[in-house]
Amino acid sequence: DIMPKKKNEEKEQEDQTGVVRHQIYEYAHAILLQANSSGGDKMEEEEDTQVDQVKLIHLLGFLSKALCNAACFSTSERLSLGEDCVKLALSQITSMQKLGGSFTKVSNMLSKAMLMSATLSSLHASLESSEGEQEEGGEQERDFAARVLASLLQHKLQFPSSDASTNNGQAAVMAECYILYGRCIVSSTEKLFSLATSTKSVQIGIKLLPLSISSLLQLVDSPYDMSAKTVSSEMTTLIRSVFSVPLSKMLLESNNNSDAKDCIEKSLSALQRILVQSSHFKYHYEYLLPTLSSFLLVLLKSLKDKKHKDSKMHAQVKEWIAPTLEQLIQLHASPTMDASSKKSIEFVCSSVVEEVGCQEFLEMISLYNPTDTAALNAKKEDVVLSNDRAWILPIIKSSSSLTLNI
Known about the structure:
Elements: H1 2-38, H2 47-66, H3 75-99, H4 106-127, H5 131-137, H6 139-154, H7 168-194, H8 199-220, H9 228-253, H10 258-271, H11 285-301, H12 312-332, H13 339-356, H14 358-364, H15 373-377, H16 392-405
Helix pairs in contact: 1-3, 2-4, 3-4, 3-6, 4-7, 6-7, 6-8, 7-8, 7-9, 8-9, 8-10, 9-11, 11-13, 12-13, 13-14, 13-16
């Protein structure tokens, strides 16, 4: 009699926990619905509205911890609250876009930034799920990730710049918003590719991946430099997780996979924007060039299998990478490049040599500068090495030695 009684008690406790959990969901859902129905553009400076914002921030703080815990909410409840967070984030973005640069009161903008940070943190938590939850959610998980990603890509997070430079606390919160916005883009993109059983999910991911990279680059180029390092790191994580398996596998299985090829070409084109000297990206080469290096390396590693060594796709990948290497080498010779940035370029080239070997690397680059008039007038075999490319030789030597030792 003891065992059945214990089982009944456990079931009763489980039922009570389920009721409490659902009531918490209903409460949170109702609050977020009310916040969304009020509209982001109606959030004025009245004291009662600011009190409501504080309460909302506290609720979102709780959700940011609870949504990633399967014991707190069911899959459908988690996704429903995630939808609420998306709507709240977009209404706030629309509100700030209407305001433009008209906000000058630090307290008001700080409260808006804190609310945005809390909203994005909760949204990011709703995107985190275990493999078991993903299998359970299936199409729901895929559709949710696709809607989140499409919404974030269509909008642009941008705070009015007034007062940002004179208030470190406010700038720090705004920078955190850019970081969280980037993490939501990365998580939703990764989720589309991680749902491996869904062909439709991967197809959506392939279509949106280049836009994800472009949006992440915009976040790096934001007015808040402190977010550049973290967003760059998130972008590197995305590239390694997505390009190293799903896309490379598709390329190797079918040379006619035009969608995968188009995705890679557009993604590389987006990353090549960081090599434009007139852009603000040059201030973040320390973080961005390793990201570019990761992209090049995952493409090269995907072709390591000997049976693909002489394939058309191997030639295609080299054709993609060669112009980027040439851009990097020309950038190295620019008088505006500092020592740190040059070191980053040397790191990229060194990584490529280690991956493909000295011979293939030299097939993709030139040791003489094609813009050098003397080099252009001379025969190729007569020009051994341009002075501004002498730094390549020690890299080839050291990287080749490392490869041989390995």
